[in-house]
Amino acid sequence: LLGQRMDRLNPAETLAVHQYLAAAYSNTDRLDLALERYKMILEMDSISYTMRDQLTFVVGQIEFSNGNHQEAIGHFYEWLQYQPNPSLSQIVIFANVHYSIGISDGISEAEKEKNFRAAIEFLNWAIDKAKAEGKPDREEWYGILRAIHNSLDEMDESLEYTELLASRWPKKDYWTQLSGLYAQKASDAGLSEDEAMAFEKKQMAAFELLLRQDLLGSGRELETMTQLYLYHESPYQAAKTLNSSIEAGKSEKNYKNMNLLSMAYMNGKDFEESV
Fold it and tell me: Could you say which DSSP state residue 168 is in?
């Protein structure tokens, strides 16, 4: 019935009906029906270039939210070719779509890397644009960059972004990951003994920073800290850390931990406690 009545409308009236229905469907979270209406509008020759640009981007957003990444990317790139100065949020949407494609199942390694590289380009564009316009860059941008470089096994870049995140947005996860990356870097082939030791010291320093902020809450974390202290010849700190963890009930009083505690006391020349 609606179709029969639509045939009697002129282009302006047809456009108004599609717009009204699209808005109604969007406001009631029926995005698939809204999408149908937006696509019908895009098929109309009478709409303005401005409206075509706006709706092309909106269609891309809906397709992206529905998980139709290839459909979304097609509409986004169609929109982009007519945009001399897209906003930061719009640029980041391109990065997010490419990243989502890169981590999706069933794509080839070549396609995965292609989309990751495109995501990197868009995120760097957003970062440069934010700096040029005096606007703040965002933590999540660097988080995606770190994740991409990690997926591409690019250790140096992953380490660089983890250091940046840990210094600017100091969170436990960042410092824990940073300590782990320093440990990985220390085991790289081709490093001199001094270079490897420098990374090992950074590994301990990153983990110790969490201890000093009382962010190592589990027995396992405190046992790791103890081992790092012992490895770096700080037996007093090793014994103090593990003993406190055992007394607090965080670490078990088992063979492994008592042996570790004994070694810490022995290396600190506290032989009575070691016995």
Answer: H
pLDDT in tens, the chain (275 residues): 355 465 666 666 676 776 777 677 667 677 777 777 878 777 777 777 888 888 888 888 888 888 888 889 999 999 999 888 999 999 999 999 999 999 998 899 999 999 999 999 999 999 999 999 999 999 999 999 999 999 999 999 999 999 999 999 999 999 999 999 999 999 888 889 999 999 999 999 999 999 999 999 899 999 999 999 999 999 999 999 999 999 999 999 999 999 999 999 999 898 888 88
Q: Please, are residues 251 and 259 in contact by the beta-carbon 8 Å criterion? A: no
Q: How far is CA 275 from CA 117, 170, 223, in A?
A: 58, 41, 20
Closest Cα partner for 140 from 161, 109, 118? 161
137 Cβ neighbours under 8 A, 6+ residues apart: 126, 127, 130, 131
d(CA 252, CA 245): 9
Cα–Cα distance, 216 to 228 (Å, whole number): 14
Residues in the chain: 275
| 121 Rama sector, left if φ>0, alpha if ψ -120 to 50, beta otherwise | alpha
